[in-house]
Write a structure and sequence with these properties.
The chain is mostly beta strands and about 260 residues long. Helix content is about 0%, strand content about 60%. It is built from one helix and 21 strands. Strands 1, 3, 4, 6, 7 and 8 form a six-stranded mixed sheet that branches. The protein is rod-shaped. It starts with 5 loop residues before the first strand and ends with a strand. The model has no long low-confidence stretch (mean pLDDT about 95).
């Protein structure tokens, strides 16, 4: 028989192997997985057979780390040996990688916004993932974890109200553990998200609280976002005369010092 084309760590490998010696034979049948220059034995048993006697053996092995260790590769084979005979299987792959499809339902978010993190995780063999997902957004101080059931994950994280605006990397790590608590299969992915800049506070700085007629003075208007950072945008400025008449109406840049001289 032939193995499948792809296996992940923890998958079961099952093949049928037929022995039919032309002469009486008493020896061990061994089956090894060979990946490049590395190999591991997964089966060994003695058989005493008569000439032309035929027997079929089902070789079953769970490809856990306790059995194959760190043996992985894209061009692996089964090598069976009995007495002077040797047989090789077709090539197959053993992988510990998990592929991740991530859906954030957008990539631009306001401070305080709740993000739904959901997606799909699959082992290279196509088997479902039963494990854990870790999410990190270092620039926002967010670090959380959750479970992956039947290859699916879905949970919410909330952007802090004082989140720094700009681009941030959200990274995901999904992994499985074996019965001994060791990581068997693992995958990583990341996406770029943007936190919008939201006006939180305006500040007016005057060079003086009182002036003489016809005396000029300077002023600065600062606009701050949710993280306390200066917003470099235009600000609509109106200066009123007594009686609520508009004396000046213009756009100025946040953070720039302006000189005002009454006419």
């Amino acid at each position: 028989g032939q193995p499948e084309k792809f296996y992940s760590i923890g998958d079961e490998l099952s093949v049928d192997l037929t022995l039919s010696p032309s002469a009486p034979t008493n020896d061990f049948l061994t089956v090894d997985i060979v990946c490049g220059n590395e190999s591991v034995q997964i089966y060994r048993s003695p058989f005493n057979l008569k000439a032309n006697e035929e027997i079929t053996i089902n070789v079953v092995a769970v490809l856990g780390k306790s059995l194959i260790g760190n043996l992985i590769g894209d061009s692996c084979q089964l090598e069976a040996n009995y007495f002077t005979d040797k047989a090789l299987s077709q090539n197959f792959a053993i992988s510990n990688k998990i592929d991740i499809e991530l859906d954030l339902e957008g990539n631009k978010f306001n401070p305080g916004k709740e993000i739904n993190v959901n997606g799909l995780a699959l082992k290279r063999s196509g088997a479902l993932v039963e494990g854990f997902v870790e999410v990190n957004i270092p620039g926002l101080g967010i670090s959380t974890s959750n479970n992956v059931y039947s290859s699916k994950f879905s949970f919410n994280i909330t952007i802090p109200n004082n989140a720094k605006s700009g681009e941030h990397i959200i990274s995901l790590r999904i992994y499985e553990e074996d019965n001994l608590g060791k990581i068997s299969n693992e995958g990583n992915t990341s996406e770029l998200i943007k936190i919008n800049q939201v006006l939180n506070r305006l500040e007016i700085l005057l060079s003086s609280q009182s002036i003489y007629p016809d005396e000029e003075f300077s002023f600065t208007i600062n606009a701050y976002d949710q993280a306390g950072d200066l917003i470099n945008e235009d600000i609509a400025l109106k200066i009123y005369e007594p009686g609520d008449f508009i004396y000046l109406d213009k756009l100025i840049s946040s953070g720039n010092t302006e000189i005002f001289k009454p006419l």
